[in-house]
Write a structure and sequence with these properties.
Blueprint (H helix, E strand, L loop, with lengths): L3 E6 L3 H11 L4 E7 L3 H10 L4 E3 L2 H7 L4 E4 L6 H10 L4 E4 L6 H14 L3 E4 L6 H11 L6 E10 L14 H4 L10 H5 L1 H12 L3 E9 L8 E2 L2 E2 L5 E8 L4 E7 L7 E9 L2 E8 L4 E6 L9 E2 L8 H11 L7 H17 L6 E2 L2
Length: about 350
């Protein structure tokens, strides 16, 4: 089997993860990289032994010696670059969020599906063994009919400096500024915790309301050219399919947690508590006869393929993988409605 030739579009921090993961898969070869910042592109290519570099996507497409692309550009650039790749006939593995809003995300979805191209989104945590096992527990009926969904994504880089100083580093400051393309915690980590909650539970959101909050972080509300106006935390109240209700929230100021997701599901036959992040991932269940004395048991979870491997699987087989563009667009619709319902908190219908 010949290797699939991959182009990496964007050479920022997240691109290094893509380069390492794809380089570890013998079925793919990273043949080129694109970035508009010459020094960053040169360093990235040298670090990851990438032979060909281009200052623009148009130049790379004119060259054409690749089979698919990983799009790791800034969020507002996902739409135009992905549409250009699709028009040129290339499958795309896009970073999340797929687009800035549902309208653009659906345009990307319809273009990729219409062209019959593999299209996937890097909702990273699908590769966590505990997440996949939790989905299996639910699918096998261990919880019965789910009634409550509680989910939280906890970060604290506005409090601690383990990732660096957000007051001085551009890679963090842009995430706090709407003008620099940030949709805040809702767009950055909200899509992850929403995906986790819906993927594991198997439920759909029917009605939703969101409350967004921006903390006062600087006496002037601005550092250099960065206006600190993007949301730092949110809470989503949701009515879910099957009669369940849910609360989904996230914060960048959850002191003590670097990068942690917590998900609790409670049904009429049992409960499930899932925790994962940088350290100490775990999956516990209380099901069957254990519900009568509140006994929780930890489940061992075998390794599962990550999204990078699934994308290569799709390229090799020609059959689209998950999570795909359409799923990411559905998530974006919910996030858009959360923004629309803030600040008065009224519920909006997803359907």
């Amino acid at each position: 089997m010949s290797q699939k030739r991959l182009l990496i579009l964007g050479a920022g921090d997240m691109a290094a993860n893509h380069a390492r993961e794809f380089a570890a898969d013998a079925r793919v070869e990273i043949v080129a990289a694109v970035d508009t910042i010459p020094d960053r592109l040169a360093e990235f290519a040298e670090t990851h032994s990438i032979a060909n570099t281009f200052a623009s996507l148009d130049e790379a497409i004119a060259w054409g010696q690749f089979d698919a692309a990983a799009n790791i550009t800034p969020d507002p650039v996902h739409y135009p670059t992905t549409m250009t790749l699709i028009a040129a006939g290339y499958p795309v593995f896009c970073e999340k969020p797929l687009a800035e809003n549902h309208v653009l995300a659906m345009a990307m979805t319809e273009a990729a599906e219409g062209a019959g191209l593999v299209n996937m989104v890097n909702l990273t945590y699908r590769g966590v063994p505990e997440v996949q096992m939790a989905r299996k527990v639910v699918n096998e009926g261990g919880l019965g009919t789910i009634r409550h969904v509680n989910a939280a994504y906890l970060q604290s880089w506005l409090v601690g400096d383990y990732w660096g100083d957000w007051r001085t580093q551009e890679k963090w400051l842009w995430r706090l500024s709407k003008a620099h393309g940030s949709s805040g915690a809702l767009g950055d980590i909200g899509i992850h915790i929403l995906d986790t909650a819906l993927f594991v539970s198997g439920l759909k959101v029917e009605m939703v309301s969101g409350r967004l909050h921006t903390f006062a972080k600087h006496e002037t509300g601005k550092i250099g050219e960065y206006v600190l106006d993007a949301n730092d935390a949110f809470t989503i109240s949701a009515t879910l399919s099957g009669g369940a209700i849910g609360v989904i929230q996230a914060s960048r100021s959850a002191a003590g947690y670097g990068n942690r997701q917590n998900l609790s599901l409670y049904g009429d036959k049992g409960g499930l508590e899932l925790t994962f992040g940088f350290h100490n991932s775990s999956l516990k269940v209380c099901m069957g006869g254990d519900v009568h004395d509140q006994t929780w048991r930890t489940i061992e979870c075998p390794d599962v393929p990550n999204n990078y491997q699934r994308f290569v699987d799709a390229l090799v087989s020609g059959e689209n993988g998950v999570p795909n563009f359409r799923h990411a667009a559905d998530l974006q619709k919910i996030l858009d409605l959360c923004q629309q319902s803030d600040p008065d908190g009224h519920q909006l219908s997803v359907t």
